[in-house]
Every structure is written in C-alpha cells, then in structure tokens.
Amino acid sequence: MRVARIALLLCTLVLLASCASPARISEGGEGGAWRGAPSMNHARAAHAVVVSGEAIYALAGTGVNGAPVLEVERFDGTTWRDVTRLPGDGLNAPAAAALDGRIYVVGGFNTVTNVPSDRVLVYDIARNAWSEAAPLPAPRGGHALVVLEGRIHAFGGGNSQSTLADHDAYDPKLDRWTALAPLPRSEGSPAAVAFHDRIYLIGGRSGPADFGNVDIYDPRTDSWTSGPALEPRGTAGAVVYCDAIHVFGGESQARRESLGEVLELTRDSGWQALAPMPTPRNFARAVLFEHAVFVIGGSPTPEPSHASHGSAVVERFFAPCAS
Predict the structure, then answer these.
(1) φ and ψ of 10, to 5 deg
(2) What is the pTM of this model?
(3) Which residues share a beta bridge with 110?
(4) Can you tell me the distance from the alpha carbon of 65 to that of 125, in angstroms, rounded to the nearest whole number?
(5) Rounded distance, CA 74 to CA 84, Å?
C-alpha cells in the first residue's frame, strides 16, 4: 500500500509539473493552444520550410551568428535529422515548394548579401539528389511561393535595387515559367496561401513601409481583387487550417518589433485574434503537419539585414476545428 501511494504521488507531481510549464503550453480556449516541439538542429531565419510526404524539411537561411546555413534537415514528427546540403554557398530569403516528391528552392539572395539569384534548385527526395530547373525570368529574393493546380506561383520579392510586382508560374511538366497578372503593388516578404481555388497574398513590405493589404488572385480570370485588410506586417507565416487562413507572427517595422500575433480569416468573417505565439518571431515559417500548425525558426529580434540571427525554436498550434 505504501509503495502504491508513493507511485501515485510521483505520477501526480509529474503531471502537475508538465501542466505548469508556461514554455511548453499556452492555452487559448476557443482561440487554440500552443505546445512546444523538438528544436531544429540549426538555428534559422530568412529560411524556407515545406512539407512533403510524412516529413517537414527546413532549408537555407541564416543562423545564430547570421552565417548561411547549408544543412537541410528533416523532421519526421519525432526527430530532426540532417539529410543533405544545399548546393552553393548559401541563400537568404529564398522560397520553396514541394510538389510530386521534389522540393523546389526558388531564387533568394546569395549568402548574406542583397544580390538576388534566379536559380531553381530541385531536391529529389527519393534519390537524395539535387538538380536545377529552368531559372526564374528575373532574379529575386524575399518572394512567396504557392502551389495551385500543379503549378508553382512566385509572387513579388525584390532585387538589389527595388521590390517587385512580378507574378510568374512554373509548370514542372514543361520546365517553363509563364508571366501572369502582376501584383497590385511592388512588395517583398508577403505571406501567401491557396484557399478555395484562389491565392491569398497577405501583407508584405517595400523599404521601411509595411502593408496590411490582402490581395486575392483568381487563376480562372488571371486577375486580382481585394480582401479584408489586417494590421501591416511583413515576413509573417500563413497556412490554411480548420478551413480558415491563419497568419503567424512577422515583423512590424513601424513598431520595430517581431510579432507574436495569430490571426484567423474565414470565408464568412473578418480577421479574428487567436492565442498568440509563445515566442514572437519574424520570418515565422508555418506549415501544416500531423493535424497541427508548426511554426519553425525565425528571428525573435527585428533586423533590417540579410544576415538575420536565426533561432531553432519550433512550436505547435492546435485549434478545435468545427466538424
């Protein structure tokens, strides 16, 4: 009996300790809840994150000391493991997309400079091998990518002189880029998602100005319309989760801070605030994985630099999706 009571007491203490840890759990009721997840092997900001098959892949960016990160790591739901190295000397602010068992790493700025690249690096996951696809029509970094109907759309970004309004789509079957309707304004660092057969481009910035616009692209008409605006920000993450658009973190240049805000947009309502991120971050790369949103890496401090100091933090967001 004494042994059983001691065992029960120990179990109770363990449960209390795990529930009381604010770094691991942040409850938000109907606004969702946050839990910690295993950290990456390498700190990253201005990086790219994609999901392919049953794993998350983190690529490129800059690390703890603002140096390029060449290792590509894979998360299987339990452990991060380095699987390959990025060709070349490193990239900051590339964009990446996963399609048909391949990861496309598109553009970016070379190493820690503002010199943009037009290269499209292709990682074949099954073969663990790299190749190159048709280059971008023009070099750029700080852009957004979205996969819709088998094509990869690239939006905005910048070169070494200005931000861009370019919108190009890549067809992997033809290995060809096609110019489409340009953005309503030139901007870099927007968030973007595909939602109900359209593409939503959210926020972004040009120089010291942040934008709060939401622009909606209809591929059937190759045209743009306006959606509900939000507070201006750039470098935010975005995913579609519970049949709603969710925006995570980012940076406000006007406030000179990295953001921890989480906002939700449904088809029937405006933007709603949810439980904030435990760790505010710009370059808040967000992906949907195992029925939760993973926000991976980013920089906790705002830095107008191509050599941002990254972090390895990974946090999971859960929400009660309606049936």
Answers:
(1) -60, -45
(2) 0.90
(3) 91
(4) 29
(5) 9
pLDDT digits 0-9 by tens, 27-82 = 444 589 999 999 999 999 999 999 999 999 999 999 988 999 999 999 999 999 99
Residue type, 120: V
- Pair of tokens at residue 80: 């991060």
Q: Calculate ∠ Cα 295-193-125, nearest 5°.
A: 65
In angstroms, the CA 155 to CA 143 distance is: 6
How far from chain centre, in Å, is Cα 38?
17
Show the tokens assigned to 108: 């970016």
**Tokens describing residue 318:** 């859960």
25-318: CATH topology is Neuraminidase (2.120.10)
**Tokens 């805000």 — which residue?**
261
Quote the distance between the C-alpha of residue 41 and its chain's center.
Answer: 18
Sheet with 237-241: list strands edge to edge. 237-241, 244-248, 262-265, 272-273
Token pair for 13: 């203490």
> Do residues 232 and 161 touch, judged by C-beta distance below 8 A?
no
Taking only the tens place, the pLDDT of each residue in 211-238 is 999 999 999 999 999 999 999 999 999 9
C-alpha to C-alpha distance for 118 and 313, rounded to whole angstroms: 30
For residue 24, what are the contacts with CB-CB under 8 A and spacing of at least 6? 18, 35, 36
Closest CA to 104 of 156, 154, 53: 154
Q: Which of 48, 89, 49 is nearest to 67 (CA)?
A: 89
